[in-house]
């Protein structure tokens, strides 16, 4: 029995020495010290030993158990140390390497320009209102004094959903909705995406963005229009910017005008950007046509107003000197990161 106990001790020590992982060490513990382990089995054989020898044999079993447990604890500490060293070696950080940068995106030039325009007009007391992109033909054309047989409707030919609904060609429909539902006076701008059946080139796209403004109140004159847009131009392009109004025609305004600003590249002296004229066309504007006011339920004898519209892409192209409108839609991060 003593020889068997010694053999158990030697086998346990050899297996513990050969254990290469903590999981293997646990298996060895179960095999030798568990409820069905070899030491437990040999204890059950004590009845075969003479009564006078049992105390000495029991002491030997306990000593063997203590040796095995001590050896296992030492090996457990050693294996844990090696595992920790391996982990630290695998997870070592070279602090001299450049840090990884998180790419969180970049604001689009259109977004930057829109936020600037909104900041200017909100500072003047205007409200920013959005409208539907799928608009009734009535609000997109007829309510703006553009009947079915009007030539201006051909110029703004758009994508029809059916005979009643179109993809809007301008955000002016939002102005009509506002005039019909909101109490007077009105001071608003209506930014948004618009659609026209244009061919794609450096200056045209079938989908682009507009910002249109509207003011309705008592005693509004063309002088108010000029003063407002002159201040807008100075805020957007610089304090030295001057404006010029040229007569034009829009069905929904009377009188109507195109507004030019002094070239912010050359200061009005003439350069490649302004084609030598010193001026750059920036937007269309005019006094709201009395018929448009009447169709929206506003008395033109008591109220008057002005409206204006500017292409958001045009502002971005001019402000950032971009030569091709298509660059705004290609989503090339090398281009976007310049702004």
From TrEMBL:
What are its E.C. numbers?
Answer: 6.1.1.20
Q: Name where it mostly resides.
A: cytoplasm
Substrates-to-products reaction catalysed: tRNA(Phe) + L-phenylalanine + ATP = L-phenylalanyl-tRNA(Phe) + AMP + diphosphate + H(+)
What Pfam families does UniProt report for this protein, alphabetically? Phe_tRNA-synt_N, tRNA-synt_2d
Q: Which residues are listed for Mg(2+) binding in this entry?
A: 254
Residues forming the Aminoacyl-transfer RNA synthetases class-II family profile domain are: 117-330
Keyword vocabulary terms for this entry: Aminoacyl-tRNA synthetase, ATP-binding, Coiled coil, Cytoplasm, Ligase, Magnesium, Metal-binding, Nucleotide-binding, Protein biosynthesis
Where is it localised? Answer: Cytoplasm
Gene Ontology terms, cellular component aspect? cytoplasm
Molecular function in Gene Ontology: ATP binding; catalytic activity, acting on a protein; magnesium ion binding; phenylalanine-tRNA ligase activity; transferase activity; tRNA binding
State its cofactor. Answer: Mg(2+)
Enzyme class (EC, first level): ligase
Give the InterPro entries listed for this entry.
aa-tRNA-synth_II, aa-tRNA-synth_II/BPL/LPL, Phe-tRNA-synth_IIc_asu, Phe-tRNA_ligase_II_N, Phe_tRNA_ligase_alpha1_bac, Phenylalanyl-tRNA_Synthase, tRNA-bd_arm
PANTHER family, alphabetized? PHENYLALANINE--TRNA LIGASE, MITOCHONDRIAL, PHENYLALANYL-TRNA SYNTHETASE
Q: How does it assemble?
A: Tetramer of two alpha and two beta subunits.
**Family membership:** Belongs to the class-II aminoacyl-tRNA synthetase family. Phe-tRNA synthetase alpha subunit type 1 subfamily.
Q: What is this protein called?
A: Phenylalanine--tRNA ligase alpha subunit
Q: What is the protein's species of origin? A: Frisingicoccus caecimuris
